[in-house]
Amino acid sequence: MALLDYIMHHNRYMNCIGVLVVLCIALCFSFNRKKINVRLIGVSLLLQYLIAMMMLKTTIGSYILGAMSKAINGLYACADVGIMFLFGQLANPAGPWQFIFAIKVLPIVIFFGAITSILFHFGIIQKVVAIVSYVIRPILGTSGAETLCAIANSFLGQTEAPLVIRSYLTHMSKSELFVVMVSGMATISGAILMVYAQMGVPAVHLLTASMMAIPASILIAKIIIPQEDENARSSKTVEAEQQSASNIFDAIWKGTTDGLHLAINVAAMLISFLALITLINFLLSYVGMGANNLLRFAQVPFRFSELTLQKIFSHVLAPFGYLFGFTGKEAQAAGQLLGTKIAVNEMIAYGDLVRMNLSERAHIILTYALCGFSNFSCIGIQLGGIGALAPDKRPWLSELGLYAVLAAALSNIMSALVIAFLI
């Protein structure tokens, strides 16, 4: 009886239905349903639940969150020394110009390029990939490279994390590459996380959401594009690769140069994609105006509201508000915020969330639902970022871009549904 009361309270039974809906949507878009690893689905859901319980309900979880936060802050503080030297107070987001992506984020990519090149030169990354593969493969059946990138994405972000496995990218199967793409879009970087925390979004839930996104993104990615050929895994081919850098200084030069190339590509693709999305919204507004003029001419009193990608996705995603267990204005707000996140970005959505007068529980659940880079402009970031590291994979990146946005959004929604059931 107590269990039934718990499930009915806050409409938690809708959360269970929501998990099934998310899985069904992923199945509908699967490239090969016969190759889906059913065991992986159950294990990934269990891992999400256990991560949420450990991080939010135990002392050791709080300690891990604190340690990770300090480590992330330490890395970014080191990068800030070089950034401040070049850009001065422009690198301070507390100034009237606030957060400048080109100054605060892109130089960090260059720094991480140098770090990962050094780690690869000394064979550290190769050993980590081997260990992760040894531990994770029996649990999830994924390779070390794709799993390590999914973990790195949860803290470093989609521009820096692929640098950790850049020597493995060229050898990746389509399924492995899709995990890299989805995990990148299903998480936020440590630098951006701190910005959102300053905006008033609870940091503990942002960190927990990033942790939960690891199994969630692998789960959805492996449903949509399952691993079809076990012999095509990247870790089986890279182990024999020879180190290209002759010494540590050569490794630093190569890593810095690669990071610079990556940062420039990301900046260029962002300019193009954001401008094109704005152009689409501009054209949509004219379609709406034309429709309203026809209705006015026909003397029909009905009028369409302003038509934008944000509005379209707000209506499409509105049902998820009810699956979170919300009703009334909170359910409508959930659809609006999810639409803003996908059509624009999560930064604008979090700004709207902080200003909305929602209950504390709704605020927490939506923090998880919005905690990811799953929007259209991130397709451009990955084309410019991962595409620069592995040019031969660019056709796959462009082919799978929209699927990655869908899969990452579903991953975030899955995490929010699990949290909604627990709190």
Description:
The structure is a single chain. This protein is mostly helical. The protein has one domain. Helix content is 76%, strand content 0%. Helix 11 runs antiparallel to helix 13 and helix 18 runs parallel beside helix 20 (360-370). 48% of the residues are buried.
Summarize the structure.
This protein is an all-alpha fold and 423 residues long. It has helices spanning 2-8, 12-28, 38-57, 59-87, 101-104, 106-121, 124-140, 144-156, 161-164, 166-169, 174-185, 190-199, 203-224, 235-238, 248-297, 309-317, 319-323, 328-343, 346-355, 360-370, 377-389, 394-422. It has one domain (2-422).
Indicate the structural class. Answer: mainly alpha
Helicity, in percent?
over 70%
Beta-strand percentage range: under 5%
Assembly form of the protein: single chain
> What is the makeup of the main sheet?
none
Low-confidence stretches: 237-242
Bulk shape: globular
Number of strands: 0
The helix/strand series, from N terminus to C terminus, equals HHHHHHHHHHHHHHHHHHHHHH
Q: State Rg.
A: 22 Å
Mean pLDDT score: 83
Number of helices: 22
Distance between the termini: 19 Å
| Number of domain units | 1
Which features would summarize this protein structure in a list?
22 helices, 423 residues, single chain, 0% strand, mainly alpha
Show the helix and strand layout:
Blueprint: H1 2-8, H2 12-28, H3 38-57, H4 59-87, H5 101-104, H6 106-121, H7 124-140, H8 144-156, H9 161-164, H10 166-169, H11 174-185, H12 190-199, H13 203-224, H14 235-238, H15 248-297, H16 309-317, H17 319-323, H18 328-343, H19 346-355, H20 360-370, H21 377-389, H22 394-422
Helix pairs in contact: 2-13, 2-22, 3-4, 3-13, 3-22, 6-15, 7-8, 8-11, 8-13, 11-13, 11-22, 13-22, 15-21, 16-18, 18-19, 18-20, 19-20, 20-22, 21-22
